[in-house]
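Customer escalation, tier 2.

The customer says the design service returned an amino acid string that "doesn't look like it belongs to this structure." They asked us to rerun it and document both sides in this ticket. The original structure tokens are below, unchanged.
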């Protein structure tokens, strides 16, 4: 009997003070970046251990979880008295790649504004990919995992439990995903500001307004208005203005209103 077959029937020790997932059923994340993390893991075809890890996450078996640049560490209570130590590593994004990402975002004001506001725009994954540095892992071997449990599987259910809690952590704070890839929020926003500021054109010096006249009469009269202030008006048709208004609901005369006005204007020689 293998490890997995043996421990399938071993009672899980109930953890005290563990980190329980906020999601009791259904999806683990609400925002697209948290859901994307789970979708990536599902695409790796990990199998039943991912499902069992979800149960561990909801039962509060993960005792602590720390996200550092390129590394996640956690302790997970299993069937043994001592919790297992879990480590997940992913290669940080190189400095030059971060600079390329910031440059692309500096040219996308809408995405940059959303990011500064604490949200991840749905265009962000494309900006990372365009810079040659995918934000999310592309294959299972991009994530190196280790657990002190005797299970040889990768990942084991203890690692899978941490995966799910990471989705909730990323969902609440998207910059934790940045931190995992090598840049925390302050460092990246400072880089984004430096690049955006260096590319911004120098503002033109404002032209000071002309001083007002000290002569009382000129002050109250003001300056003469330009002749084209209100634009030019040119009448190109001899049709009375009333004809352009359409039927008039207030007219109660027996004769047609427009015809009557036209006839009256003809008598006065007005067009």
């Amino acid at each position: 009997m293998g490890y997995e077959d043996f421990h399938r029937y071993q009672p899980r020790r109930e953890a005290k003070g563990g980190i329980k997932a906020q999601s009791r059923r259904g999806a683990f994340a609400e925002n697209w970046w948290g859901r994307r993390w789970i979708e990536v893991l599902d695409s790796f075809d990990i199998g039943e251990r991912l499902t069992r890890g979800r149960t561990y996450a909801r039962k509060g078996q993960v005792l602590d979880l720390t996200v550092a640049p390129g590394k996640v560490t956690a302790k997970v209570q299993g069937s043994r008295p001592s919790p297992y130590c879990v480590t997940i590593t992913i290669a940080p994004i190189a400095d030059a790649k971060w600079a390329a990402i910031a440059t692309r975002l500096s040219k996308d004001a809408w995405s940059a504004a959303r990011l500064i506001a604490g949200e991840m725009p749905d265009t962000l994954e494309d900006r990372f990919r365009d810079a040659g540095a995918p934000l999310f892992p592309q294959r299972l071997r991009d994530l190196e995992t280790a657990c002190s449990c005797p299970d040889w599987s990768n990942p084991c259910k203890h690692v899978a439990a941490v995966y799910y809690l990471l989705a909730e952590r990323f969902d609440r704070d998207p910059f934790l995903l940045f931190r995992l890839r090598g840049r925390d929020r302050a460092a990246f926003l400072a880089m984004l500001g430096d690049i955006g500021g260096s590319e911004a054109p120098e503002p033109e010096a404002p032209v000071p307004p002309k001083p007002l006249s000290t002569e009382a009469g000129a002050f109250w009269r003001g300056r003469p208005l330009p002749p084209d202030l209100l634009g030019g008006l040119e009448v190109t048709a001899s049709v009375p203005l009333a004809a352009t208004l359409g039927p008039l609901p207030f007219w109660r005369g027996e004769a047609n209103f427009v015809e009557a006005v036209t006839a009256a204007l003809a008598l006065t020689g007005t067009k």
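Tier 2 assessment: The sequence is consistent with the input. The longest strand covers residues 62-68. The chain has a mean pLDDT of 79. Sent an explanation to the customer and offered a walkthrough call.
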